[in-house]
Amino acid sequence: MARSIDPGTTGQHTAQVDEADTAPALGSGDVPVLATPRLIAWLEAAAVAAIYGILDESETSVGTLISVEHTAASPVGALIECHATVIEVVGRMVTFEVNAEVHGPEAVKSIASGTHTRAIVDRARFIAATLA
């Protein structure tokens, strides 16, 4: 890694829930609200954003573990803001605290929290090993 990844480094991902993001669309339920699999992808996107400019061009990160409590439903049209903060770096493993909020007309409400770990890998070697 060219530069060090420091605890406290943050990233964000913002998205608006549409029909393609709902539980029925993703096969994870039958209620038309934000699907947990989509929320997890958005939380991972926030983590990727946190370390994007820090890695060498030859490096990337891959998710290895996520533990998230999805505590509130979000309807189609809701604006979701996801945050990731580096809390630990051990070798090539980076652990983030992640959370998500829905921004409503009257208030901001927490909808998810947890942790996510990503491994820093050499992009070309990872792709070659995956395709082998």
Explain what you see.
The chain has 132 residues and is an alpha+beta fold. 22% of the residues lie in helices and 43% in strands. The mean pLDDT is 95. A five-stranded antiparallel beta sheet has the order 1-3-4-5-2. It is globular and about 40 Å long. The two termini are 25 Å apart. The chain has one domain (10-131): Hotdog Thioesterase (Thiol Ester Dehydrase, Chain A).
Rg, nearest Å: 16 Å
Tell me the CATH superfamily. Answer: Hotdog Thioesterase
* CATH topology label: Thiol Ester Dehydrase, Chain A
Largest sheet: 5 strands, antiparallel
Low-pLDDT segments, ≥5 res: none
Give the termini distance in whole angstroms: 25 Å
Number of domains: 1
Percent in strands: 35-45%
Structure summary, number of beta strands: 5
Secondary-structure element string: EHHEEEEH
| Shape descriptor | globular
Q: Which architecture per CATH?
A: Roll
Overall pLDDT level: 95
- Estimate percent helicity: 10-25%
The secondary structure category is alpha+beta
